[in-house]
Design a protein that fits this description.
Rossmann fold, 2 domains, 44% helix, alpha/beta, 227 residues
Length: 227
């Protein structure tokens, strides 16, 4: 592991306003198979991988034949119906540029499927800035298990003591903490400050974090700031 400091980034609900769209895509997919699931239950589960969300809201295993068909259809629906309208949160690109200007390495740790991750980063306006990407396809267990975060650390070649995660869900907080990382939370994904308990700091969105950057954990993290 290198000595460079890094930011581990979630994407959905953190860089782009996509959590509601993911929930609607799941609802639509279940409905096509004659299954009714409660929107609130699905929305609360966004941030988990499909391997955890599906049994949580429907009792169906993603690894079952039916589960695989529903999951595949959800991906099609999301990409076709919802992805084109997804937008970055205000000042997202400026925040990522600030991380880079401070000499921080960047790595993505997302519950998104690999074939959705690149389009989401394009919608965020940062695909050209973020090269290290870890998706749910790179981990045995999705968030809130730490596998994706640990894989992102390995891909970035950074030590967990010199990394801070940025995320928006309680599952990000749990995954980061289980991986031994500090995490900064954002409320723009739909969770409250209270729901993000365990984060070392919480901001409304990337814009507020950028405004308050110099007092944030990332200012401490910046290259050379930690021994």
């Amino acid at each position: 592991m290198g000595s460079r400091a890094a930011v581990i980034l979630d994407v959905d609900g953190t860089l782009v306003d996509s959590n509601d769209a993911h929930a609607r895509a799941w609802i639509d997919a279940f409905s096509e198979f004659g299954i009714t699931v409660a929107y609130d239950a699905v929305r609360r589960s966004i941030g988990m991988g499909g391997d955890k969300l599906m049994p949580e809201v429907s009792g169906i295993s993603e690894s079952s034949e039916l589960g695989q068909r529903i999951s595949s259809r959800r991906g099609e629906i999301f990409r076709q119906r919802y992805l084109p309208a997804i937008a970055a949160f205000p000042r997202t690109r400026e925040l990522i540029e600030r991380f880079l200007a401070d000499g921080l390495a960047l790595a993505v740790a997302s519950s998104a499927k690999e074939d959705e991750l690149e389009p989401l980063l394009q919608r965020a306006g940062v695909a050209d800035l973020v090269r290290q990407r870890t998706s749910s396809d790179d981990a045995d267990e999705s968030k809130p298990d730490p596998d994706i975060v640990l894989a992102a650390l390995r891909h970035a070649g950074v030590n967990r003591q010199r990394a801070v995660m940025l995320g928006d869900t309680p599952y990000d907080v749990a995954a980061a903490r289980r991986a031994g990382l500090e995490i900064v939370g954002l409320e723009c994904g739909g969770w409250t400050r209270e729901a993000l308990a365990g984060a070392v700091a919480v901001y409304r969105d990337p814009a507020e974090l950028l405004v308050r950057y110099d007092e944030s954990p990332f200012a401490v993290l910046r290259a050379g700031a930690r021994p």
